[in-house]
Amino acid sequence: MVHPTSSDTVPTHPIRPAPRLSMRTRSALWVWGFLAIPVLFYCVIRFYPTFNAFWLSLTDWDLMSEAEFIGFENYRRMFADPDFWQTFRNTFEYLVFGTPISLLIAFVVAYYLDRVRFAHNFLRALYFMPYITTAAAMAWVWRWFYQPPPTGLINSALGEMGFGQIEFLGSTSNALPAIMVTAIWAGLGFQIIIFMAGLRAIPDTYYEAARIDGLGEWTILRKITLPLLKPTTVFLVVFISIAFLRIFDQVYNMTTNDPGGPLGTTEPLVLMIYQTAFSSYDMGYAAAQTVVLFTILLVVSLLQLWILRDRA
Amino acid sequence: MTSVTETPGLAMSRINPGAIIRWTILFIGGVLMVTPLLYMFSTSLKTPGQIYDLRLIPAEPTLANYIEVLREGDFMRWFINSSIVAVVVTLSNLFFDSLVGYTLAKFKFRGRRFVFIAILSTLMIPTEMLVIPWYLMSAQFGWLDTYWGIMFPGMTTAFGTFLMKQFFETVPDDFLEAARIDGMNEFTIWWKIAMPLVTPALSALAIFTFLGNWTAFFWPLIVTTSKELYTLPIGLTSFAVEQAIRWEMIMTGAALATIPTLVIFLVLQRFIVRGVMLAGLKG
């Protein structure tokens, strides 16, 4: 009697379709499967363009003819160009005045707003709202505010109060501060929220101990709040500095009739880059300008790491 | 225990002149902050003859400007363009940032540190440096003046990836191990087990990415050339330049560009503020 049992037809281990992958190999397959598209993205959309920008900065290229390698000629031209230095000065003017003013206002508002209980969310919303608006749209509102009388709101109000008019966007000395105010206004909401988060993160026990010791409010602020808030402050200084170094939307929209004007007194680096690349199609020269911007931003970021190094 | 700590309730019930003055000053400051928004809306409701009137409340509010702007401009088109761009980029970031963040946080593999540092290092590269190569790339592949051309640079970001990695690190390994023993594959574990545990981070990332792309200006300005492809901010700029000194029309356009973000803010205020705090502290 012959029974067709399984042992007749198949070897001892009935289910063995393929050699098993080890756990490690399988895990690695999943990992690189997950990472494949993003890694490709970073290579093609981030790293290659970075190197490409460095390379282009060493060429002369107007998009029409072939790019021609010219070494450091673009950089030599830039450092000899008074317009570049004016732009450089303008950019640092935005940075040097804009950053401390933003920081001070944001801290003072956050410090007091944090302790307000009555209608707290409402007040916070008032301060935060400008941050989520479109910079391009609000730049036009501010541009209207700054118009000469009778159109501009500020000058009309000054007139009603019996003051003389102020020239804002048409003046070589007032235009940059006027645009800077718009940029400060747009960023405050974010900075206030970050400061408030930083203030909340300070444990109450510090304050209680200070009160038991009979320290006054001013001393508590100087000896406890500000030192413990240092990481937040450093983060914001860098964040705001980078934002001012990259200022563009407001300047572009508030000076469309004469970009960066009057007489280039409001023109920041990014606007210069935009015009060199997309108005003059001087791609190599524009790339060299972006490399300079990159270097400045890198120095600022490294300074942050250096200041915070002892905390790591 | 200290017996006399100031609790918020007590502080409020006590009439404290200092507190009232501080509140009033904060309130005035807050009103100043929203003044540009108030005047923008106010002027958008005024007739051309009334715009020199400084009063905030228009004498005879009218929607005529809105009707004219919507009829003349391509605002509806730009609104749709901005929505498509912002939604697609946001979905892409939610998917890829969290997938990569999860992989970096929860898998041990050769090259993990290298991949992480490589991604993190792109935070140092400013967009301005990349736009020229992106522009040349787009010209070569025919991406100029297309939706894809506007969207491709932001499909995944180092900031989002880093944020998600930080949050996935708080997910206990036991959860994932249990699912592995149950025979789930790794993709399902990520999607079904890990993702629901980080929804606060996902919503923060979604809000940031959406608002960031909705208000983006520099790259869309470069990559779009035809009116039909403009996003709302670029469209508004071109519209405002055309209108020259018709400020009531420009204010109406600005209001139309601002209303969507304000609506989002008013509806999601709590999430947005929490998201800013989360990202600011973790990022």
UniProtKB/TrEMBL annotation, chain A:
Keywords: Cell membrane, Membrane, Transmembrane, Transmembrane helix, Transport
An individual GO BP term: transmembrane transport
Domain annotation ABC transmembrane type-1: ranges: 88-304
Location of the protein in the cell: Cell membrane
InterPro entries assigned to the protein according to its UniProt record, in alphabetical order: ABC_transporter_permease, MetI-like, MetI-like_sf
Transport keyword on record: yes
Name of the protein described by the UniProt record: Sugar ABC transporter permease
Automatic annotation (TrEMBL), chain B:
Domain ABC transmembrane type-1 as annotated: residue spans: 79-268
Keyword Cytoplasm: no
Residues annotated as transmembrane: 20-41, 78-102, 114-135, 147-168, 189-211, 249-268
Major place of residence: membrane
SUPFAM superfamilies the record matches: MetI-like
Gene Ontology CC: plasma membrane
GO process terms (BP): transmembrane transport
Keywords on record: Cell membrane, Membrane, Transmembrane, Transmembrane helix, Transport
Location within or outside the cell: Cell membrane
CDD domains: TM_PBP2
Keyword Cell division: no
Topology within the bilayer: Multi-pass membrane protein
Top-rank taxon, per record: Bacteria
InterPro entries: MetI-like (IPR000515), MetI-like_sf (IPR035906)
Family: Belongs to the binding-protein-dependent transport system permease family.
Protein's name according to its UniProt entry: Carbohydrate ABC transporter permease
